[in-house]
């Protein structure tokens, strides 16, 4: 311990300083203790800490190197506010007694006499504690936590007995106990939270019980044998966790809002912001696990943070916004989730600040290089202020929704290609000196016969065009590499939620929380574990396989054919059939269009990414509407797929602008 100050009187307790160590978990050694003179606490060591950090203290005390232990709740009492007229100086709202799990009863002699006789009673007369009898070694180490009645935010720690000894004063477990050497009593009585999370993630990811146990035994053997309690993991440990998964339910209350509130209270460590839905206030719940925080700290430092907003807008009760980072293979990894019953852009000023406070509490030097924004309605000034980095516009969501709308409502591939190109021209129209309205009118005039898409365009796209165009004029545009990574994450989420979202009613918010923090989280954790260790390669989730950006890097530059005389088209030789070459229109653009099967399903393909990388390297940009493109429109018109083109079209042949995404 840091030491003791002079003896204090009971009435001086509230004048003691409140200690808040900067480390995440802390123990008695991090605190200055005061010994109480006289009264009910006479001779005990006391200290004040924030009540919110009691859990951190309990965990820190459990990590004692000489006597590893777990402290369990032996007894607990609560009082309601206002129930006491004149509370004592140490009066409590909540009283909790924590006792070392190796005590207080002692079964060491009992077991030697009675063997496995479960009817044997301990000397204290309290009766047997099911499932814990083999651990009881008479340890008397215990402390009390009081949430003070007059100061509810403060906890009074009362260490009644600090040493892990039995009633005779002798060490009863840990390395100081000679009888415990070579047995489990040398170590903590239960597996660590880290190992529990690891095993739970493997179970959620589909790894069998036998495979987990076998893998753990091999791992322990590889590291020279057992060194702590975790190394003694048994089938029974894993089976208990498996049963817990099967018996757990996301529904903690019949009312969804109450269920979410209960979950948030039970898992407060993983909640960085919570606002209950009440009156005009929407539900906002920000989630981040310890593993996600580690990824954000590691991969987000001098890297990019990207938003994936409004997922499940039509199918979930409350849409989901994800914050993503990118690993060395350009795979998107979720590092925070925000569930909100309002538009995600409306609440960012509430949850974004607390998230950054959480991150910078771990590393106050942490700072990303850029924030990739997929929703232009987000307040960019809030993002710049919070993250202190530049903001880039990511058009993946716009691109995907438009191309999906085209493929669903227009069946002719050539018309799809031209319409997609013209939609891109609308977004960048102000770069050429023309206005949005003129560009839209021209687009609707050219493709007037395609009524299905025009109806979709008017009802779903027109209202957002001005906002998009304004964002493009004020923000740099992110490259297509990020498109592929975010799209891969989007498809992963779809596969997780597809079954529930096909039901008639929208899934509850507590269900969404459960799926995110168990199945989705475990899949990403397990994928990283496979990558780092090389184990379980045969169980790697195919949906987390390399995205289009990673696949594009495998295509040789010599397999990309660019024609200087026809810059509007590129060819990429197939990597599986060398006799086949895919055609890419409008190369180097966010609105490029490939005829490969993956792209024709509305996705960003590896061919588009590869050509984009080459265009960037060679500083090649594709004009939006050059003479060849006008010829393409005329060809469609002559074939009857488009109405006759007017000779006085407002778009000039020299009307060109750079589609290529900016990086500065």
List the helices and strands and how they pair.
Layout: E1 3-8, E2 32-36, E3 45-50, H1 54-62, E4 71-78, E5 92-100, H2 108-114, E6 142-148, E7 154-161, H3 193-204, H4 209-222, H5 235-247, H6 256-266, E8 271-275, E9 284-287, H7 290-300, E10 304-311, E11 320-326, E12 332-340, H8 348-362, E13 370-373, H9 380-387, E14 390-393, H10 396-409, H11 413-427, H12 436-446, H13 451-474, H14 480-501, H15 509-533, H16 548-552, E15 560-562, E16 569-573, E17 581-585, E18 593-594, H17 606-618, H18 627-638
Parallel strand pairs: 1-2, 10-13, 13-14
Antiparallel strand pairs: 2-3, 3-7, 4-5, 5-6, 6-7, 8-9, 9-12, 10-11, 11-12, 15-16, 16-17, 17-18
Helix pairs in contact: 3-5, 3-15, 4-5, 8-9, 10-11, 10-13, 11-12
Protein name: SWIM-type domain-containing protein
Region (Disordered): 113-132
InterPro entries: Znf_SWIM (IPR007527)
Tell me what the structure shows.
It holds the Pfam family SWIM. Keywords: Metal-binding, Zinc, Zinc-finger. GO terms for molecular function: zinc ion binding. InterPro entries: Znf_SWIM. With 664 residues, the protein is α+β, with helices and mostly antiparallel strands. The protein folds into 5 domains: 8-108 and 134-186, no CATH class; 193-247, no CATH class; 256-394 and 478-530, no CATH class; 397-474; 546-631, no CATH class. Helix content is 36%, strand content 16%. Strands 1-2-3-7-6-5-4 form a 7-stranded mixed beta sheet. The chain has a 7-stranded mixed beta sheet with strand order 8-9-12-11-10-13-14, with helices on both faces. A 4-stranded antiparallel beta sheet has the order 15-16-17-18. α3 (193-204) crosses α5 (235-247), α3 packs across α15 and α10 (396-409) packs antiparallel against α11. The longest helix has 25 residues, at 509-533. The protein is elongated, with a radius of gyration of 32 Å. The two termini are 53 Å apart. Residues 111-131, 622-627 and 645-664 have low confidence and may be disordered.
């Amino acid at each position: 311990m840091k030491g003791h100050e002079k003896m204090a009187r009971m009435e001086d307790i509230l004048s003691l300083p409140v200690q808040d160590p900067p480390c995440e978990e802390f123990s008695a050694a991090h605190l200055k203790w005061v010994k109480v003179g006289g009264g009910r606490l006479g001779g005990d060591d006391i200290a004040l800490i924030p009540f919110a950090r009691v859990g951190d203290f309990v965990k820190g005390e459990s990590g004692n190197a000489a006597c590893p232990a777990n402290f369990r709740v032996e007894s607990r009492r609560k009082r309601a506010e206002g129930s006491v007229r004149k509370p004592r100086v140490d009066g409590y709202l909540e009283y909790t007694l924590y006792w070392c799990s190796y005590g207080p009863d002692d079964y060491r002699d009992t077991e030697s006499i009675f063997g496995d006789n479960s009817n044997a009673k301990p000397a204290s007369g309290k009766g047997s504690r099911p499932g814990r009898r083999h651990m009881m070694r008479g340890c008397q180490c215990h402390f009390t936590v009081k949430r003070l009645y007059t100061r509810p935010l403060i906890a009074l720690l009362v260490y009644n007995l600090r040493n892990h000894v039995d009633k005779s004063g002798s060490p009863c477990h840990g390395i100081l106990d000679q009888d415990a050497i070579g047995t489990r009593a040398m170590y903590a009585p239960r597996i660590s939270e880290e190992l529990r999370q690891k095993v739970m993630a493997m179970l959620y990811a589909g790894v069998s019980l036998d495979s987990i146990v076998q893998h753990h035994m091999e791992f322990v053997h590889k590291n020279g044998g057992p060194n702590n309690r975790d190394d003694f993991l048994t089938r029974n440990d894993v089976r208990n966790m498996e049963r817990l998964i099967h018996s757990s339910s996301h529904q903690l209350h019949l009312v969804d809002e109450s269920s979410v509130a209960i979950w948030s209270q039970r898992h407060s460590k993983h909640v960085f912001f919570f606002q209950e839905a009440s009156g005009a206030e929407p539900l906002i719940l920000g989630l981040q696990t310890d593993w996600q925080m580690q990824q954000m700290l590691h991969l987000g430092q001098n890297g990019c943070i990207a938003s994936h907003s409004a997922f499940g807008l039509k199918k979930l009760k409350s849409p989901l916004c994800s914050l993503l980072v990118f690993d060395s293979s350009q795979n998107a990894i979720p590092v925070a989730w925000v569930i909100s019953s309002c538009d995600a852009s409306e609440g960012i000023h509430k949850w974004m600040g607390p998230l950054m406070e959480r991150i910078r509490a771990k590393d106050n030097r942490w700072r990303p290089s850029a924030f990739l924004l997929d929703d232009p309605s987000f307040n960019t000034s809030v993002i710049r202020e919070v993250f202190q980095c530049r903001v880039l516009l990511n058009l993946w969501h716009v691109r995907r929704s438009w191309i999906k709308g085209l493929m669903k409502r227009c069946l002719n591939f050539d018309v799809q290609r031209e319409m997609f190109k013209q939609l891109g021209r609308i977004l960048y129209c102000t770069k050429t000196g023309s206005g949005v309205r003129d560009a839209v009118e021209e687009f609707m005039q050219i493709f007037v016969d395609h009524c299905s898409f025009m109806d979709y365009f008017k009802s779903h796209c027109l209202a957002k065009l001005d906002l998009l165009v304004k964002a493009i004029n004020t923000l740099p545009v992110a490259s297509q590499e990020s498109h592929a990574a975010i799209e891969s994450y989007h498809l992963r989420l779809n596969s997780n939620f597809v079954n529930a979202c096909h039901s008639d009613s929208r899934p509850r918010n507590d269900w969404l929380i459960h799926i995110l923090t168990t199945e989705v989280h475990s899949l990403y954790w397990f994928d990283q574990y496979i990558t780092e260790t090389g184990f379980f390669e045969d169980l790697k989730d195919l949906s987390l396989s390399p995205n289009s950006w990673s696949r594009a890097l495998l295509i040789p530059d010599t397999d990309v054919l660019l024609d200087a005389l026809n810059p509007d088209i590129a060819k990429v030789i197939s990597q599986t059939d060398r006799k086949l070459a895919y055609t890419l229109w409008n190369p180097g653009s966010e609105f490029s269009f490939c005829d490969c099967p993956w792209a024709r399903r509305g996705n960003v393909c590896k061919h588009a990414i590869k050509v984009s990388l080459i265009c960037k390297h060679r500083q090649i940009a594709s004009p939006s509407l050059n003479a060849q493109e006008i010829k393409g429109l005329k060809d469609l018109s002559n074939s009857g797929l488009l109405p006759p083109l007017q000779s006085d079209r407002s778009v000039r042949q020299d009307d060109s602008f750079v589609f290529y995404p900016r990086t500065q």
